[in-house]
Inverse folding.
């Protein structure tokens, strides 16, 4: 069993601090973490753990001009205008994130290894207007399973499957392309699904290793919707799709530099 509590502080982004003279008075962002978990070893190479957490955020910068905007939703990518925060800001934003995480691991002891991660959570924030809204990163659930198998004679295969709930976004007015502020983050993108597979062949030599591989990303050819945007040229709402199936082959050469160094010292 494990229990933990921590307080973490982070300075606001520099672009927020220099955007407006009043932003120099922004406080450090604070996060209080409460964590409780349990772990059980089924065997020397097999373990399972379950963890619950609650994170409370305070002093997050919010816009004084757009009272529905909290900079926690930008994520540091600055892809959209509302992400930059080039306006007067106040350290008045609050929020929380809470959830449960399941982790199962089978370590590589013979031929097989794998991990399973499942996270069910929610994340919400309040900006200057005090209305609780869903965070941009509130997928609600994340599921990842990875695994691999060593066949012998240098052959090995691996795969990764990922599934995530759709991210929230703000609906767009189909008449003029403006964001419907009254419905901020009330819509969701479709769920995300992706499966990657890979096959490797390894040759080990005295001072170097040769690796050849075939890698197929998104083998299910699922074109996930990554965002919904307004096209100012066509005057239409468009869905941006991720790339479909992506196969590749490659060769890696790994030099055993440490072994060469030891041999040179010995000589």
């Amino acid at each position: 069993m494990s229990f933990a509590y921590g307080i973490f502080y982070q300075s606001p982004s520099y672009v927020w601090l220099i955007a407006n003279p009043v932003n120099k008075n922004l406080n450090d962002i604070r996060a209080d973490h409460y964590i409780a978990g349990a772990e059980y070893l089924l065997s020397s190479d097999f373990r399972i753990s379950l963890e619950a957490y609650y994170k409370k955020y305070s002093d997050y910068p919010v816009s004084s001009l757009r009272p529905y905007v909290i900079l926690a939703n930008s994520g540091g990518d600055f892809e959209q205008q509302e992400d930059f925060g080039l306006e007067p800001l106040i350290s008045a934003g609050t929020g929380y994130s809470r959830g449960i995480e399941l982790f199962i691991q089978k370590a590589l002891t013979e031929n097989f290894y794998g991990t399973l991660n499942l996270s069910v959570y929610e994340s919400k924030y309040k900006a200057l207007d005090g209305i609780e809204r869903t965070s941009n990163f509130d997928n609600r659930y994340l599921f990842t399973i990875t695994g691999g198998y060593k066949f012998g004679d240098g052959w090995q295969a691996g795969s990764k499957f990922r599934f995530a709930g759709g991210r929230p976004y703000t609906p767009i007015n189909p008449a003029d392309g403006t964001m419907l502020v009254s419905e901020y983050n009330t819509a969701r993108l479709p769920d995300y699904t992706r499966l990657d597979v890979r096959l490797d062949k390894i040759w080990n030599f005295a001072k170097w290793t040769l690796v050849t591989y075939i890698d197929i990303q998104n083998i299910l050819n699922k074109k996930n919707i990554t965002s919904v945007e307004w096209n100012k040229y066509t005057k239409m709402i468009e869905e941006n799709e991720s790339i479909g199936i992506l196969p590749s082959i490659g060769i890696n050469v790994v030099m055993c530099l440490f072994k060469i160094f030891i041999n040179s010292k010995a000589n």
About this structure: The helical segments are 14-17, 257-266. The first strand starts at residue 2 and ends at 10. The longest helix spans residues 257-266.
